[in-house]
Design brief:
This protein is mainly α. Helices cover 74% and strands 0% of the residues.
Length: 267
């Protein structure tokens, strides 16, 4: 039971700090349950028609509705990314990078945006190798990379428009800072762990961004968050509970499967 409590509730087996850990765990559960209760209460008020008129997202202008939709989808996307990292065990470049990338391309009508992103990352990686020889400080180096990425995208947009293939609809709100950060993190991981590890993490990052893109572009999800913004309380509860999870990740179960096999044979 102690091992189960340690895995699920972050409770240490050491009795000297168990009491404090249990108190913190109970506080997290209380906050999560309170958030769920608040969400259920607002849902009941909305169903009964007791909420004020200004609490309806549908009463906002179109631009404000799109902004509120983005603000409501971002925490849900962050919860998905946290679950992928902490439960499934797939490493990504940051928590918000996949979420922001997925949300940035949810308005595209073709895979052109993802193709352009891959080109930017590849060319940015090559430019980063050249900038590394200048021995710049981190913040100015990031600013230089941002300028290079921006200039490269401007040239690419101008060239595509000259070819009769405008890219404005394929690159809505492209998070250049996130792309620059991905290039920096890819370079750093390549230096420390090798190209294979960096490519694997980048692939996981783009895969999670693709899942976020598909889910947040689904009409049912978009209409649901617009109609019931109080669902954010349930997302918050999930984030709180996920923050206390320290059990095995699914990738760890696969990675150490031979240990379980050896233990079974021994018994």
């Amino acid at each position: 039971m102690a091992a189960v409590a340690h895995c699920l509730f972050n409770e240490p087996v050491n009795s000297s700090i168990r009491k404090d850990s249990m108190a913190r765990g109970m506080m997290v559960w209380a906050l999560a349950l309170g958030s769920i209760a608040a969400g259920v209460g607002v849902l009941n008020l909305r169903a009964a028609g007791d909420l004020p008129a200004w609490a309806a997202v549908e009463t906002l202008p179109a631009a404000e509705q799109a902004l509120v939709e983005f603000l409501l989808l971002l925490p849900a996307a962050a919860l998905l990314c946290a679950g992928v990292r902490n439960v499934l065990g797939f490493a990504t470049f940051g928590t918000f990078a996949p979420a922001l990338l997925g949300l940035a391309f949810r308005e595209t009508d073709s895979p052109v945006g993802l193709f352009v992103l891959l080109i930017v990352l590849t060319v940015g990686w090559a430019l980063r190798r050249g900038v590394a020889g200048l021995n710049l400080l981190q913040v100015p180096r990031s600013a230089v990379m941002l300028s290079l990425v921006s200039g490269m995208l401007v040239l690419f947009v101008l060239w595509s428009n000259a070819q009769g293939r405008p890219l404005a609809s394929a690159l809505p709100f492209l998070p250049l800072v996130i792309v620059t950060g991905l290039v920096e993190r890819f370079w750093a991981m390549e230096e420390e762990d090798g190209t294979a590890a960096a490519v694997r993490v980048m692939g996981a990052t783009l895969a999670v961004a693709g899942v976020v893109f598909l889910l947040t572009r689904w009409g049912f999800v978009r209409e649901t968050v617009r109609s019931y913004p109080e669902l954010l309380a349930f997302v918050l509860a999930g984030q709180l509970l996920l923050g206390r999870y320290t059990g095995f990740r699914l990738t760890e179960l696969y990675r150490f499967r031979h240990i379980a096999s050896d233990d079974t044979v021994t018994r």
